[in-house]
Design goal:
Length: 180
């Protein structure tokens, strides 16, 4: 990336890492691509940002497996490291038992199924959803996003863009679900 491209992508993918947790987001980039963004703090406390431009079919192939995406880019520790090319996984069916377990985790954090459906309604409307004072860690926040994705058809999960943490300094986020 050029410095100009990195600056534009940084503005498109507002994320803020914290001392307690890195931040992860998926954003629409253009008609054919999404932007996967990861922000963490280095050992010196400086923020480090990783951006991966993903073709839409590639993101859809993951079928909502956000933990695998997080693990793939979250393991990068050297900003000058050359990354191996990402390969699209073979989509696996989400078993009814796994879907029920994901929904149970979401309900445990958010209350009744009615409350979960209200979140889903907010996500699929034209408005964006800001969750303030929600779960603290990236893993817990991904549980919320994955739980909402479990309620969507597989082909629509890639359209559920999100930012796991933003603050006023990161600027406005283009994610459909934003944690603050």
């Amino acid at each position: 990336l050029s410095l100009q491209s990195a600056d534009l992508w940084h503005k498109a993918a507002s994320l803020t890492p914290t001392a307690a947790s890195p931040a992860l987001g998926v954003f629409h980039l253009d008609k054919f691509h999404h932007l996967l963004a990861y922000a963490n703090l280095t050992d010196t406390g400086a923020p480090q940002y990783t951006y991966i431009r993903l073709p839409n079919p590639y993101l859809r192939a993951w079928g909502g497996n956000l933990v695998a995406l997080q693990n793939r880019i979250g393991s990068i520790s050297n900003p000058t490291e050359t990354l191996a090319p990402l390969t699209a996984p073979i989509p696996e069916a989400w078993s009814p038992a796994d879907r029920e377990a994901t929904l149970a985790q979401l309900q445990a954090g958010g209350g009744s199924m009615s409350a979960v459906l209200n979140l889903l309604d907010a996500v699929i409307s034209t408005e964006r959803l800001l969750i303030y004072g929600g779960p603290e860690t990236l893993t817990e926040r991904l549980t919320v996003i994955t739980g909402l994705m479990a309620l969507l058809p597989t082909c629509a999960r890639a359209d559920l863009t999100f930012a796991s943490y933003v603050n006023a300094a990161s600027g406005p986020s283009r994610g459909r679900v934003v944690f603050a």
